[in-house]
Specification:
Strand order of the largest sheet: 1-2-3
Distance between the termini: 36 Å
Low-confidence stretches: 113-117
Shape: elongated
Largest sheet: 3 strands, antiparallel
Radius of gyration: 20 Å
Mean pLDDT: 81
Helix content: 55-70%
Order of helices and strands: HHHHEHHEE
């Protein structure tokens, strides 16, 4: 179930980005019609998960909430632009408006992450990450928060990719060092988030 949710949230993020691109093309005269089909797909995904909060874990709910907020903001801009276009008062500043929305979203995300803050450095250990997914989730949240504090982009960081990375890293270290347990430590050093792995004696 979790994999399906992650895939749907990933699709939602891609659809919102595509919607923004196609609306920019429409308002710029490159397309004759607004991307109604993409809006329909986004609305379908949003409605599907609007009442399924209990089925999502913390990272999924956090990511889903951010995407819905971003979509709502974009949609407000699109509606205003459509009205201006119909009235013949189009002002071609959509790109600037979108950048303002992105800035607001980044500030809001930073505040939310601060309220859900974990203490850094953060350390966790396990024998097999596939059997201790709660610990992997906590490490993921800590690492993303560290990247945010360091001013690094957190958008490319997904739970699915992160879980795959720690699974491979854990197996690699256990084989190389003939160990049973691996510890991961998240820190912020200078302007960079660090994720270090070491075997536990």
């Amino acid at each position: 179930m979790s994999k399906t949710i992650d895939e749907d949230i990933g699709q939602l993020e891609r659809e919102i980005r595509q919607l923004k691109i196609e609306y920019e093309q429409y308002f710029g005269g490159g397309k004759k019609r607004p991307p109604a089909d993409i809006e329909w797909r986004i609305d379908t995904l949003v409605k599907r998960y609007s009442d399924r909060g209990a089925q999502m874990n913390y990272t999924q709910r956090f990511r889903y909430g951010n995407l819905v907020q971003m979509y709502t903001k974009y949609r407000e801009i699109f509606r205003k632009r459509m009205k201006q276009k119909e009235e013949g008062t189009v002002q071609r500043h959509f790109g600037a408006a979108a950048r303002e929305i992105e800035a607001e979203r980044a500030q809001r995300r930073a505040k939310t992450e601060k309220s859900e803050a974990v203490n850094l450095p953060f350390a966790v250990s396990w024998e097999d990450p596939d059997h201790e997914k709660k610990k992997v989730e906590l490490l993921f949240v800590a690492f993303r928060e560290a990247k945010a504090k360091a001013g690094e982009d957190t958008e490319p960081l997904t739970m699915e990719a992160f879980q795959k990375f720690v699974r491979q890293k854990t197996d690699q270290l256990k084989k190389q060092k003939d160990a049973h347990e691996v510890e991961y430590i998240v820190t912020v050093e200078g302007n960079h988030a660090r994720l270090k792995a070491r075997v536990k004696s």
